Amino acid sequence: MGFSTLIHIVYVLSAVAFIIGFKLSRQTETAQNGRLISGVGMVAAILVTVLDRHVARLDYILLGLLAGATLGVAWIRKMPQEVTYASVALLNALGAAALWLVTYAQFYARPAGQGFTGGLALCVSAAGSAVALAGTLAAWAHLTGRMKPGQFPLFKKWRLGYLACFAVITLSGLVFASDVVAPEAARYFAVFSIAGAALGVALVLPDSMQRLPSTIVLLHSYSAAAACAAGFFLQNALMVVAGALVCSGCVALHQQMSHSGSNESA
């Protein structure tokens, strides 16, 4: 059995661990065990990935993991309880920004050979991460009092802007995917990235403070969908499975939170 086969086996087992952990996390009594199982799956996936012979600079990866984990833990521990949602929003924004940079690097370094399917995956990854990045930054600014929804009355009255953003992303993405190596492909990449950012802000600003937690969960689904799409052009099965799982779970949780909020308001 080759090492590449071992990597795929570990990826499959890690995906199973994610599924079990996610299911256990939905119950208060088993939530801690669920997070532990998911964490073990993530660590296993990271270990087999960094041991791959195709990884050229392992020192950079380890340094990034150490720095990110240290700063993240220290940041959360220093945050007071009342701004936890704001902290989660800002951390998700950092993750979405990293994913957008990975997508752009893939487009910049390897435009040839992507094909129509690869171009669509690049579009979904870039646009989805832009939605999550801009939306969670707007949510963070809203939760911390740095931005008030009333400052942008257009978003409260013109919800057709959602459809406009989706139309721009779809049209520019199709043109982009049809010829990724074209000289103007970078312009279309910028167009659907900017449209995604506008959509993210539009999703947040009309919401009241009580609805923001569920909106943040919805924005998580966009970043998960972007990670799933990135798994296709990076040829990483774990990203595809885990991204799809987290995306569907976040959408279901968002619907549940929205339904509970509607019942409480009634």
Quick recap of the structure?
By secondary structure, the chain is mainly α.
Description:
The structure is a single chain. With 266 residues, the protein is mostly helical. The chain folds into 2 domains: 78 residues; 185 residues, no CATH class. The protein has 10 helices and no strands. α4 runs parallel beside α9. The C terminus is likely disordered.
* Overall outline: globular
Name the helicity range. Answer: over 70%
Uncertain regions: pLDDT < 50 for 5+ in a row? 262-266
- On the 0 to 100 scale, the average pLDDT is 79
Q: State the distance separating the first and last CA atoms.
A: 60 Å
Query: Total strand count, please?
Result: 0
Strand content: under 5%
Backbone structural class? mainly alpha
Count up the domains: 2
The run of helices and strands is HHHHHHHHHH
- Biggest β-sheet description: none
How big is the Rg? 19 Å
**Number of contiguous helices:** 10
Explain the layout of strands and helices:
Layout: H1 3-25, H2 31-50, H3 58-78, H4 84-109, H5 115-143, H6 153-157, H7 160-178, H8 185-204, H9 212-233, H10 237-265
Helix pairs in contact: 1-2, 1-10, 4-5, 4-9, 5-7, 5-8, 5-9, 7-8, 9-10
